Amino acid sequence: MRLLITFIFIQLSLLAISQNTVSPYSIFGPGEIERKGFGTTQNLGGAGIAYQSGSNLNNINPSSYTSMDSMKLIFAIGLENKFYNLNSSSRQQSGYTGNINYLALGFKYTNWMAGSIGFVPFSSVGYSVAKQNYVEGANEVYTSVYTGSGGINQIYFGNAIRLLKNFSIGINASYMFGPLIQDENLDQTEYSPELQISRQDFLQSFYFDYGMQYSFRAKKTDFALGFIFSNKQKLKSNHILTVYNGSHSILRYEQYDTDYLKIPMIFGSGIGIKKDGRYNLLLDYEFQKWSGVSYPIQYNEFVNSHNFSLGLAFRPWNYSVLNRFYENLEYQVGFNYHNSYQKFDNYVVSGGSVSFGTEIPLPSRISKISIGIEFGINGTPQNLLIQEKYTMLRLGFSLNEFAFIKRKFD
Hints:
mainly beta; Porin; 2 helices; 62% strand
């Protein structure tokens, strides 16, 4: 009960937090799509469609909730720190961002039904881009500076049911909210005054994603298959357009409801191979159908996105309460390759990463700390584009508390 009260308090106090990014590519669509996962699965390159654990939460596939220990409440919280370097053909920029990455709580109603509630990011927006334009009909150049901020957050409530001994289905119902803000500042010229154009979308919409998992044992090896799906959905928002002059007086104001923000159909599959409780190999593939999705104020072409994740979790020694501290650690390594939904001329933005991590049991032995580091690269400095190189440090807590135990008194 203490864990539940703590979770609710932190959840309510952090609803206004949005994720941070500095990628100029977040100017397009709904922004930079955040990778799902908590703690361990993040260290596994994001692989988790077939991941099952009795003491860790996994929001990548909602059907995985049935694998939780029926005697526990699981509280997950994650922190993220990113050191980045942006590089183009003409300039470089380095910096740092940090934030709370996720908050979630998992629990079992019965031996065959489980649920989870949580607060996670869906996308992030954060950029500052300057563009030179020619005044139509005149040989004069002016500069437009685009600045973006905000992002889409999710509060989700997930439920999973075990239909057969080794087969489960699940659904995450999410309430998505948050602002997508773009400010455009135009220099004053002989032919036009100084202007600021503010475009704001305040999102409030529901979103659903589904999953299933099937597991079986063969030749002393445990296998798990997983699938996830979400259909194409329109997200409702309140759109506000405001135009200011140089003295910040309003020249134009428009406000209306719209559903032009769209999320594509998403499908994913994964396989997990576990041996003797010491090795767990996970392989995921995810497809996002962005082709055919368009945003009215953007003219670049969207393309289908593909994401591949490979992860290995292993223990050099069998787990035992009699082991020395380091002999009960779990180690993780992960690889990820993906292409974005963004295309510029003939170049599709792509990237990859490698991650390493470890899972450390706390003295109670029912809770864990996850520590991870990820090295990644996105984009290219060629063709007037931008490349991002980053180092991500992650700290995750999986706090387990025994619950639903009937106490006996003499």
